[in-house]
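Page 42, continued from yesterday. The earlier attempt failed because a stray header line got pasted into the input along with the sequence. Redoing it now with the clean sequence only.
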Amino acid sequence: MEIHIQTRWFLSTIQSFLTTLQDIPFTVWLGLLIAVTVLFLLGFFIILINRKNTLKFYRTLLYDDSLTEIKNVNYLREHFNNILVAFDQDVSMYYLNIDNFKNYNDLLGHTLANNLLHEVAYRLKNLAEPYGTVYRMHSDHFILLYPSKSDEDHSFSNRLLTALKEPYEAGIHSIKLTTSIGRYAINVKNPRFNDCLLRSELALQEAKMLGKDQIVYYSSAIKRKNHDAFSMYRLIKDALKDKQFFLEYQPIIERNTMKIVGLESLIRIQHKDRVYYPQEIIAYAEKYHLIEEIDRFVIAESFKAFKRFDRSECPLEFMSVNISTTEINNKAFIDYVVEQAEAYDIEPSKITIEFTETYSPEDFSKEANFIKTLQAHGFQVAIDDFGSGYSSMIRLSQNQLDKIKIDRSFITNIANNKANQKIVKAIINLSETFGLEVIVEGVETESDLNYIKDFNIKYYQGYYFYKALSENVCVKTIKN
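This time it went through. Structure tokens are written below.
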């Protein structure tokens, strides 16, 4: 009964509501409809405007460099072909990098350094307009596009270098900057952004290698150089993967007995029908961060071989093992050397770790600590090619070495070269002062040997005695 009463009340309420709606005049309905429509359209346009502003905001973040107030590389990358079409003529890409800008960043702080970047961008923009355009790549790198014909006589390039050298005001400081620039004349038939960027960057790298503060044009020589570098990179990678590395050993002769008392292990790559030597390998391995794996191979294989020589009744006073100077900054390297010596039960004093003196660390204390740590574990340490670098004297004063190897360039034809005779005498005198053993490498003729016999040199090494030999040949040679 109660449910029936509630149902009747509900139906009565609905009927009353419908009757009320029927009594509302048409004009009121029309007004309501118009109001709702206006509100809907207004909301739609507000959303549309907000979306447009939001897109504009994000586009600004994506394409505009807030620090320098110029377009960035994202804009150039996405609109590259349209930008070239707008030039309506041949265009060159200039890749600019401020030389040693990190120093100013460290010395002046980020705020003043950022002001410098803003001023550089401003000058570039003024130089380029109205014919060219400027973009910021990242940090202190910029890209400038400019008509090629306007620089046929290199006038624009020279203006670039000159204008960027003008002093900059950074707080109370007056700063002079130099810039390295790589230029690539874009091939309009195939203007792919990444290709153009790579070629201009390769030209920039060449400018830096040649001493900075200059402009270098991309050329066929740079193209070949890059191709060779890439080929060597692939070769080293494949050699590591396919285990194409192997070692040879060059005997070291003791002066008094003229017998083989030591060996220097030397790395090789056997790739297809050709053998590659350290001078062809190491620079690329260091540049492309492949050297650590190579050094570990050399250490492990040298230690294994040392043990095999011992078992073959060919005992050695020592074995010299060459490593890259980049290992000085590798904290795990010494641990690895110690591990391997323990694994093969080798007395550390019978291993001489060699590295060249061409490395010039900003802080020689790092190198000194590296050497001292090796020596603390019992290893001998030698500087290879001593005298060939500018820092020889500094190394002697900073580091307590065990041996030095006089660079072969001073020994070749020494009997007829008075300047080299004086240098070798000076090095030997220094070695005696610092209590170092001396190894002379590069003894290639009898006259070389006869001349150095009278010096206080303990070890000889060179083609006059032996070239690098395989392990089996070394065993036979030592036994004979």
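Notes: The first strand starts at residue 64 and ends at 65.
Reminder to self: strip header lines before submitting.
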